[in-house]
Specification:
The chain is about 45% helix and about 15% strand. It is α/β, with parallel strands linked by helices and about 300 residues long. The strands form 2 sheets. It has a 5-stranded parallel sheet with strand order 1-9-6-7-8. A 4-stranded parallel sheet has the order 4-3-2-5, sandwiched between helices. Helix 7 packs across helix 9, helix 9 packs parallel to helix 11 and helix 12 crosses helix 14.
Amino acid sequence: MLNKLLGFEFYLKHENHLPVGAFKVRGGINLAATLTDEERSKGLVAVSTGNHGQSLAFASALEGVNLTIVVPEGNNPGKNEAMRGLGATLIEHGKDYDGAKKYVEEVVMKESGARYVHSANEPALIAGVATYAYEIFQDLPDPDTILVPIGLGSGVCGTAIVAKHLRPATQVIGVQAEGAPSVVETWRTKEWTTADSVNTFAEGIATRVPAEMTMDIMNELMDDALLVSDDDMRRAVGHILQTTHNLAEGSGAASMAAAIKYRDRFVGKKVVGILSGGNLDLKELPRIMQMMNSN
């Protein structure tokens, strides 16, 4: 059905079926398993809009490590409930991800002494999430293109590292929201680009400030970067739900949105899209279905 819709060979990599419903759990488990005894005793602290926090909460529970997560005020309530349910202590602070991040780095870390787990500048996280790319090549050895949503870039970096090792001809293309384009603009211009605010419902990719480690990897290994609108992502969520009966969150559907929006460039190619997560704020669903019914 997706191939018929798009007009080329297309595969979805379903990371939404993992524990906590998103790809990031791979990185969280890898990082938690490699903590030192001192880090375990002091615990972990992180900032998250949801999937990074859920990943760490799941992994910390497995390893018996205390975890504090700072989320932006007004964050996805379902993701907040999931993090608390997994045993994390939650603090709501800041207008967005970067406001919460500033509070962690300037206040929480100094008061707690806990080990800060950045959502991107962490080799263990990138190595962990890269395992989904390895799985792609085990099942599909010769993809022409892999489309990967970009928040801060751990997923696209892990994908690019694996792809350039196993099949250098495979293009790895990142996808970001038009309302939060700082990473794509930094990659395109090679000038550090930040924003005062973001405007997207896809909280998983709603970041204002790029991350140093992942930006360096993207500059070296990522082949291209594309932007999609919120309505592009909403329609992609609807198409995924109708054709595969899987629920994607906005950021999780960004790769599908790019496949639809830029379909002409992919005709004749074998394309993989990463469905990075399925933790949609269900308040979005009526609007998405209304859009689908009006088309």
